[in-house]
């Protein structure tokens, strides 16, 4: 490296330390019961907490290319929020990637492909409003506005099932659970009236095998919004259209619940996180209730968390109503420009965003306190937690359990590099999380560690003297019998 280059880099670094482009410490810091820890700022290493009482609203967007760490960020955030606040969250999971994590975190997973969601259920709404909502969902999904006749016919049919003669009849001769009309009844009315085209538009949602929205509901949305972490897995539904109808319907119900619960005291304690990951279709339409929730959520303490790889899919209103934006790696100039125009940051940050590694983020937080300027600052790798990832090390007759991240940190501390760490992680994944002590010793010796430092490392892990002796006698035996330590290790010598 040329000295002049190093010098200018050094100067730049000093400049940054004198005028750090980071918000004041007191805005970022919070007591662990008030804020969710996210990670540290890049320059001053200030811990960053997400504290809704300091922010202008509780909404969050996470933007970045596939693999940049969006879902990881959301999961880490929700895990911590649920630990400190026992928070409620509804995750609309398009891709079906949240299930294992939600289960680990003690939450509930609803597989929508195995449930029924009767879209005619009122869930506390007036019939008239529910008709409007259903029509609005169909407007978005079927572009119903382009078929004004069919739109009217469907609306009439909805009125008929709610208010008409048939509705009354159903009430009389069915039990309380069966008296609710379903979309199948709507299709029947349309068919009986010879309104074939309208019937056909709706039939895609009622044909056997795809009648997720036409049966009696098997899920209680209201209850789900107060049941801790809940993942509604939509990926088993057969089409994007179905996933969107489910998403839109669930959001409509959530919106109604939000409004019916009324304005919340100004404590800013989030009542419900509504999480949308890769929900492009319903995030880009201004008629969808994503918009209502982001607009009105603040006064009801409802928080929208939205993650997307394509920021231009996100309706402008969403963008302008979000108090915390996490920009992970974005490469495409068009996308970077769009984000930059929406939240604003320097050329320097723009350049960094295109070079980010996994989990690195530029964060824009709008604080409630009036500030001279709004800030976008850099954070190194969002500090994640992967709950319940435990490594086991068999040391003689005992098995030591150690949390993976902790173990990796300990290895870092004794000086292992990234490649060496990966090799050890590999060993653990091959052994389903379990590695023999003597194997670990062999690897560390191979990396050039002397006996005394290996011994102190194993002690630090909690292996007692008796078992240390066992481990090392096994190491000796292996060497005597095999001559070599391990075949896999040889692969690393590239
Ligand atoms: N901050 C982070 N620290 C460590 N690993 C991360 C981090 N962010 C993401 N990863 C890992 O990178 C991979 C991709 O992350 P993911 O959240 O699925 O990306 P995205 O949702 O943006 O496509 C996952 O294996 C995840 O565990
Ligand atoms: Mg993802």
UniProtKB/TrEMBL annotation:
InterPro entries: HerA-like, HerA_central, P-loop_NTPase. GO terms for molecular function: 3'-5' DNA helicase activity; 5'-3' DNA helicase activity. Transmembrane segments: none annotated. Gene3D superfamilies: P-loop containing nucleotide triphosphate hydrolases. Residues 38-247 form the Helicase HerA central domain. Pfam families: DUF87. It catalyses: Couples ATP hydrolysis with the unwinding of duplex DNA by translocating in the 3'-5' direction; ATP + H2O = ADP + phosphate + H(+). Belongs to the HerA family. PANTHER family: HELICASE HERA CENTRAL DOMAIN-CONTAINING PROTEIN, HELICASE MJ1565-RELATED. This is DNA import protein CedB.
């Amino acid at each position: 490296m040329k000295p002049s280059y190093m010098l200018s880099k050094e100067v730049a670094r000093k400049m940054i330390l004198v005028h750090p482009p980071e918000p004041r410490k007191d805005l970022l810091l919070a007591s662990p019961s008030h804020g969710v820890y996210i990670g540290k700022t890049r320059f001053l290493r200030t811990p960053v907490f997400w504290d809704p009482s300091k922010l202008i609203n509780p909404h969050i967007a996470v933007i970045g290319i596939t693999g940049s760490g969006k879902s990881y960020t959301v999961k880490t955030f929700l895990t911590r929020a649920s630990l400190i606040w026992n928070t409620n969250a509804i995750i609309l999971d398009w891709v079906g990637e949240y299930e294992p994590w939600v289960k680990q975190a003690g939450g509930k997973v609803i597989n929508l492909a195995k449930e029924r969601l009767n879209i005619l259920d009122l869930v506390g709404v007036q019939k008239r409003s529910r008709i409007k909502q259903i029509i609005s969902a169909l407007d978005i999904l079927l572009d119903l506005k382009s078929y004004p006749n069919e739109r009217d016919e469907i609306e009439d049919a909805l009125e008929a099932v709610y208010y008409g003669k048939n509705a009354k009849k159903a009430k009389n001769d069915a039990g309380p659970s069966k008296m609710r009309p379903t979309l199948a009844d709507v299709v029947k009315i349309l068919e009986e009236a010879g309104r074939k085209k309208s019937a056909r538009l709706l039939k895609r949602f009622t044909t056997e095998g795809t009648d997720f929205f036409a049966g009696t509901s098997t899920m209680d949305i209201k209850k789900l919004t107060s049941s801790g972490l809940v993942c509604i897995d939509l990926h088993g539904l057969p089409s994007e259209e179905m996933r969107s109808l489910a998403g839109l319907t669930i959001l409509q119900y959530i919106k109604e619940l939000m409004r019916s619960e009324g304005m919340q005291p100004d404590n800013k304690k989030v009542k419900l996180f509504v999480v949308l990951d890769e929900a492009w279709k319903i995030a880009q339409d201004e008629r969808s209730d994503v918009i209502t929730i982001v607009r009105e959520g603040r006064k009801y303490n409802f928080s929208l968390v939205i993650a997307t790889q394509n920021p231009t899919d996100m309706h402008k209103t969403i963008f302008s109503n979000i108090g915390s934006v996490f920009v992970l790696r974005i490469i495409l100039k068009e996308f970077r420009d769009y984000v930059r125009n929406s939240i604003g940051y320097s050329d320097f940050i723009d350049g960094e965003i295109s070079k980010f590694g996994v989990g690195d983020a530029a964060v824009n937080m709008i604080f409630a306190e009036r500030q001279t300027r709004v800030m976008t600052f850099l954070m190194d790798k969002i500090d994640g937690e992967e709950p319940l990832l435990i490594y086991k090390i068999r040391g003689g007759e005992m098995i030591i359990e150690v949390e993976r991240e902790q173990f990796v940190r300990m290895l870092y501390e004794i000086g292992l590099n990234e490649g060496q760490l990966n090799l050890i992680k590999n060993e653990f994944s091959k052994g389903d999380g379990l590695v023999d002590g003597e194997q670990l010793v062999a690897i560390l010796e191979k990396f050039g560690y002397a006996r005394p430092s290996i011994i102190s490392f194993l002690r630090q892990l909690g292996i007692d003297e008796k078992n240390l002796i066992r481990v090392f006698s096994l190491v000796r035996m292996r060497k005597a019998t095999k001559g070599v330590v391990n075949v896999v290790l040889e692969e690393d010598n590239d």
